[in-house]
Write a structure and sequence with these properties.
Elements (H helix, E strand, L loop, with lengths): L1 H32 L4 E2 L12 H4 L7 E8 L6 E8 L17 E5 L19 E3 L23 E3 L8 E2 L12 E3 L7 E2 L12 E3 L21 E3 L21 E3 L22 E3 L5 E2 L5 H8 L1 H6 E2 L6 E3 L13 H4 L9 H33 L5 H28 L2 E2 L25 E5 L6 E8 L17 E5 L19 E3 L23 E3 L8 E2 L12 E3 L7 E2 L12 E3 L21 E3 L21 E3 L22 E3 L5 E2 L5 H8 L1 H6 E2 L6 E3 L27 H38 L1
Parallel strand pairs: 3-4, 4-5, 5-6, 6-8, 7-9, 8-10, 10-11, 11-12, 12-13, 13-15, 14-16, 19-20, 20-21, 21-22, 22-24, 23-25, 24-26, 26-27, 27-28, 28-29, 29-31, 30-32
Antiparallel strand pairs: 1-2, 2-3, 17-18, 18-19
Length: 750
Amino acid sequence: MQITAFLIQYSKKMTIKLVAGLTVAILAVVSTLAYVPCNETNPYYIQEAIPDSFNVCPRIQCQCVYCLYHNFNYSFVRYRHIVTCDKKGIISVPSNELPADTVVLKMRNNMITGLSSNSFPNTTETLLLGLNELVSEKIHADAFSNLMSLTHLQMDYNRNITFINQNWFRNLFQLTHLHLEMCGITKIVPNAFLNLNALQLLNLAGNKIKDIPPNLFQKLTSLTTLNLDSNSIKVLPDAMFHGTDNLTLLALHRNSLTTITKTVGLQNLLMLTSLSLFDNPYNCDCDLEWFHYWLREENSTNILKNIQLIDCGSPQSLKSKQVAEIDFEVLCGGSIPDAHWWVILAASLGALVLLCLFVFIGIKYRKYRILYADNRISLSSKAKMKKTQIELLGLTAALLVSLTFAYPCSDHNPYYINNSIPDSFKVCPKPCSCPYCLYHKFNKTLLRYRHAVECDGKDIHSVSSHELPADTAVVKMSSNKITGLSANSFPNTTETIVLTKNRLTSGQIHDDAFSNLRSLTRLRMDDNQNITFINQNWFRNLFHLTHLNIEICGITEIFPNAFLNLNALQLLNLTGNKIEHIPPNLFKNLTSLTTLNLDTNSIKVLPDAMFHGTDNLTLLALHRNSLTTITETVGLQNLLMLTSLSLFDNPYNCDCDLEWFHYWLREENSTDILKNIQSIDCGSPQSLESKQVVEIDFDEFECGRSFLDAYWWVILAATLGALVLLCLFVIIGIKYRKYRIGHQNYEVVQ
């Protein structure tokens, strides 16, 4: 009996412990799952320690909450005091009622007309004042002067902001984003943006700005995006972009520009990836000639938006014609390099003077000839006649030389004396032309003759370096029937090669086809449908290559290390191929890369750390592929220089693995750079097909909260604890039942 009583008592104790343990485990799980990311108070404060100034909130039905702030490209998680007062009919900022630790302040779509001195708590980092009735004269010079931590300021859609005061932003040293679009701004005072060294985005679109003060943007050394479109700007000042070397996106479309002078400095913005200049009434006269040639350069065509809409507004005879298509040689009497206009002018004036002397001496010579015919000429006159003949011959030669010097292309390099030209420089493939043409790039002062080999559309089947001039600089062989390239196919002086629209086959391109081209900067092999793979040896010695175009080929495979030594590469275009797999670390050494086009392929997966080392990337195209997911380890969020990113038209699988991507798409930095975000939609599951990824409510999924990745170990521990306790409960229950049965049998026997 004593043993039975002990067993019963022991079983009861174990049952109580088991129930208590299970209760604790369940509560742990429930409390974790029920964790709310927003609170009325900061959970990191002990209630008694919260200052009274942190507990206030405007009485006009605003919401003041501490919300968990977790940005996926940062490692920290913290609470931020967010004050939301959108659409509350506010007519003035309730400065005394704002929490002293406010971080984000939203006061959009109200009726605020003015801002007093120090209107906002000095902890504010984001301030949204769009869609109000702010008036420039009612904004105090010190309205923002205490906001040393402010990074984002939106004052857009305030129609009564007619000018920008030079004192408003003078202390905003941390400001990175400034939105002043769709206001009524007609004037910006000098030095308005003087101290904004951290500013990355400045949006002034949709105002009434007519003039840009000189040196307005000079101190904006971090600026990457500048929107000046849809204004009334007539003239751009000289050296307008001096100091803005990091600018990647510039919008100047829909203004009143009639000309753009070279002294503005557009051609010096080497980091640009997007430039819009269309819908301006350009006056197509000779002052715009440099601009015409600059538009036609490859660097320019790569970045220009709607180049076909950059057309003439005057004169009437050229109205609506594209600036890039105007024949300025006919319009202005020949293409004259403006950096050396004095050379051409001197040659022309010299030719004119020589022509006048030629006529004058010719008249004198005719006079002597008449006297000679009548036998009325003296010996001294005969000597003068001979001298005149010599002068005429000399003038004729000088005239021919001066005219030849002014002509931009020759059969030989004018800097050589004919007899000193090496024979290897005189060769030329039979169907081609090999002129020396005056080479002048408008953003350089260099003026020199370069041997260009022009063989486009000549039915060529092969390339031989022995048939090309030894001093070749440019080779154009597009639209031919070339199938292969042998070792060292081109002269080692070659800087540009164009092999577009041929029949090149990967297996027939020798490993050393380009190995001797240490000076090569541009290589085009696009539209060769039989290039099915990229060999890792083709480009290994192209240390100065800046542009590589291999789009619209049949590439299915890229060998590892194919781009290993291309440290100078700025543009890589692989659009329109059949690539399915990207090797790990393929782009690792492309430290100068700014533009990467991988769109319209069949890529299914992006490898981890795919963009490690490509910190300067500004344009990335991954649209129209077969991507079903993008993991956080790929590193998209680490590309801080990006200004253009396209990820649309991919069949994303909208499950919990895509949750981080959903939240990243919604971040302000991401929405600023993403193209066609509304087309980033789900391909599966069926219930979510065609729905936008950014609009999916991941809280309804069985993914838990977005903060669970920081607390997964708590859930795991609670779950394992509950499982262990459940097992113990079952074991003890079985033992207890066994003892109960034994006890009952014992009583029956008794």
